[in-house]
């Protein structure tokens, strides 16, 4: 029994180490106020247009940079007004800025970006060549010959239904992330006590800003550890800057320096030269063709980014080592699979992207489907085991007053918790709303009805929990590839409507980590809900206004927006390829359209799926038997068959952190400093990005003047 207990303690030591990096505050405060409201409008009016232009012109993402710049600007204004913002105010302001900069590399600037893309898609050359012109439903986008599309304007009645559906989806998404996302936070953080190793990044970044020039006489600024105090000084002595602020500033300086090389020089030279000048290859240095003689069918290369090394400092060591093991195994397995004829699609001369895509079709797509299923089974098993262990501990060690501890009760008062049954009921109602909307838009066949209910009430909660647990253990996430596409094909649906409808397939596992971040900073959860209730309508309206102005001024995509011209065309080709698997052209017989004849079916290999599933199920008990950290298996899942380019420097960072910096500064101290350094670094790079966008906008304004 003692030996088993010792093995368990060793296995859980890595988890507990990250769980205690930051102490959870005992007091929670309101962070929403007029500062938050002003910040929402500032970010929407000032930052959003720059983010849209950056995404369309260069493919860059301004989201993180704009969020931190907003927080720093408001903090400095408040300090000079002798009204410093509290930690909770800064955290909620940061959350508001993230909401206002909603978007991704392909569709920046809020939800209306998707509608502009739809207007392009329905009349694109790709759709025309596939014979799908006029096949898109009016609830998705106006027809290609509609005045709304030809005149490039949202101020047309043809857009009423698509815009209304978009707003409904946005509202349901907000409701579900605060219901099912909250439920899984309570399960993974409060009940299972998972560490959420990446949660301290945002938490410590905001805490660093809040501690700048604050007096330690305030309870909120008192250091928790003696090492944060100068020897010989009482803890009531005022200090100008905390250690955390100094580390944050160091990261910002490093980010500014590297950002000038990585972002600034290409952006500035692009203003005057025909092509930007890159000191560092972007997005990565591709060596696949150079190494194909030694490692055929194996993508190789390196992403040169200082931030990746800092990320290696933060990620759990054994998770990174699992990724390293997967990189090595992939480099060994791929040439063997090519030699035996499994990776037969790969051809000499293929670059990283084409090599990875061809390998996915032949092997890794199916393997990762099976491995994803295996990791999900492991998560469910581990949760049931840990839950039973917790119940056993409660039975063996009842509380002193004789009342059994309720593991489902909120562990701390004043956090803003609400009953779990209310969260589940509201989620079920919202899921019914999404299913009802889809049924209004799609044919009500048995196959479609089954998969709608399957996704809304089984798969979405399932994958959300799996990812909440992965984030809680190793900071990673996982998805089952092509699950939605497979369901569409198996449902027997015909036509392209099934690909366009708002199918309720969502993953809210990330929200569990978001709640953990705000818990570490002492923010009441209701502050976040209030912020979203204000920010989402403002986001939707400003997104509509800015996209209307930009789209009406110039066609998108066009030579004016080169990144959109490349990325949107590539995206359209991929989507049309999927649509073609169920598309029924004029004069075609739907009964002759078989799944076996589609290109997608050629990438699904049941034997390989089974191999990936059983491989994970065998690996998990082996790790448990030898007492190795379970983070190892999650790291391996992330690395199999993927780009090694980013992960190489990540491994370097993990090695430096573990074997040099932790010995130099102490394990706990370094693990507390590393997230703050990383947050500062991204802030510095963000400042350079904002400066380059300002230069581009100035050039555009000057070029458009008549004199």
Automatic annotation (TrEMBL):
The chain crosses the membrane at residues 32-54, 60-78, 90-107, 159-185, 247-274, 294-317, 324-343, 363-384, 420-442, 448-466, 533-551, 608-631, 643-661, 673-698. Keywords: Membrane, Transmembrane, Transmembrane helix. The keyword Glycoprotein does not apply. This is Peptide transporter. It comes from Candidatus Moanibacter tarae.
């Amino acid at each position: 029994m003692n030996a088993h207990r010792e093995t368990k303690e060793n296995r859980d030591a890595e988890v507990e180490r990250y769980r205690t990096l930051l102490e959870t505050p005992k007091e929670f405060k309101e962070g929403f106020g007029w500062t938050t409201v002003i910040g929402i409008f500032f970010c929407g009016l000032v930052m959003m247009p720059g983010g849209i232009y950056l995404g369309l012109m260069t493919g860059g993402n301004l989201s993180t940079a704009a969020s931190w710049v907003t927080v720093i600007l408001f903090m400095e204004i408040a300090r000079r007004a002798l009204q410093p913002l509290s930690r909770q105010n800064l955290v909620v302001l940061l959350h508001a800025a993230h909401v206002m900069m909603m978007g991704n590399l392909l569709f920046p600037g809020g939800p209306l970006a998707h509608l502009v893309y739809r207007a392009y898609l329905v009349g694109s050359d790709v759709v025309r060549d596939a014979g799908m012109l006029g096949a898109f439903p009016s609830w998705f986008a106006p027809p290609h010959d509609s005045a709304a599309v030809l005149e490039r304007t949202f101020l047309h009645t043809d857009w009423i239904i698509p815009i209304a559906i978009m707003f409904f989806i946005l509202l349901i998404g907000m409701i579900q992330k605060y219901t099912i996302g909250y439920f899984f936070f309570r399960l993974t953080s409060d009940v299972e006590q998972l560490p959420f190793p990446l949660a301290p990044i945002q938490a410590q970044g905001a805490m660093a800003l809040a501690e700048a020039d604050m007096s330690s006489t305030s309870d909120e600024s008192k250091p928790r550890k003696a090492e944060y105090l100068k020897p010989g000084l009482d803890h009531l002595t005022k200090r100008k800057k905390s250690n955390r602020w100094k580390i944050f500033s160091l990261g910002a300086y490093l980010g500014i320096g590297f950002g000038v090389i990585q972002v600034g020089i290409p952006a500035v030279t692009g203003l005057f030269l025909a092509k930007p000048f890159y000191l560092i290859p972007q997005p990565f240095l591709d060596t696949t063709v150079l190494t194909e003689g030694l490692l055929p069918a194996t993508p190789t290369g390196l992403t040169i980014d200082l931030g990746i090394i800092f990320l290696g400092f933060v990620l759990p060591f054994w998770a990174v080592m699992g990724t390293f093991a997967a990189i090595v195994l992939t480099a060994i397995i791929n040439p063997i699979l090519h030699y035996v004829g499994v990776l037969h699609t790969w051809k000499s001369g293929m670059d990283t992207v084409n090599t990875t895509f061809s390998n996915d079709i032949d092997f890794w797509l199916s393997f990762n489907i099976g491995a994803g299923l295996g990791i999900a089974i492991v998560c469910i098993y581990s949760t049931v085991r840990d839950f039973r262990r917790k119940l056993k501990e409660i039975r063996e060690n009842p509380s002193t007053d004789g009342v059994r501890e309720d593991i489902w009760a909120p562990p701390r008062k004043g956090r803003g918790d609400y009953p779990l049954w209310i969260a589940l009921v509201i989620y079920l109602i919202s899921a019914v709303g999404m299913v009802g909307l889809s049924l209004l838009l799609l044919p009500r066949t048995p196959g479609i009805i089954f998969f709608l209910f399957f996704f809304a009430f089984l798969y979405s909660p399932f994958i959300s929990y799996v990812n909440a647990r992965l984030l809680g253990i190793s900071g990673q996430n996982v998805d089952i590839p092509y699950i939605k596409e497979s369901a569409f094909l198996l449902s027997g649906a015909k036509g392209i409507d099934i690909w366009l409808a708002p199918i309720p397939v969502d993953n809210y596992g990330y929200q569990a980590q978001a709640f953990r971040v705000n818990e570490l900073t002492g923010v009441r959860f209701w502050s976040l809900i209030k912020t979203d209730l204000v920010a989402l309508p403002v986001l939707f309206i400003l997104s509509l206004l800015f996209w209307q102005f930009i789209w009406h001024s110039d066609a998108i995509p066009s030579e004016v927006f080169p990144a959109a011209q490349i990325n949107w065309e590539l995206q359209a080709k991929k989507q049309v390829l999927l649509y073609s698997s169920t598309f029924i052209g004029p004069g075609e017989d739907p009964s002759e359209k078989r799944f076996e004849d589609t290109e997608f079916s050629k990438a699904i290999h049941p034997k390989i799926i089974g191999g990936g599933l059983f491989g994970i199920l065998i690996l998990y008990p082996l790790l448990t038997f030898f007492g190795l950290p379970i983070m190892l298996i999650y790291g391996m899942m992330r690395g199999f068959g993927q780009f090694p380019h980013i992960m190489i420097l990540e491994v370097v960072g993990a090695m430096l952190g573990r074997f040099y910096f932790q010995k130099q500064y102490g394990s706990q101290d370094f693990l507390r400093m590393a997230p703050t350094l990383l947050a500062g670094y991204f802030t510095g790079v963000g400042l350079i990005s904002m400066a380059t966008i300002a230069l581009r906008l100035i050039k555009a304004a000057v070029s458009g003047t008549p004199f």
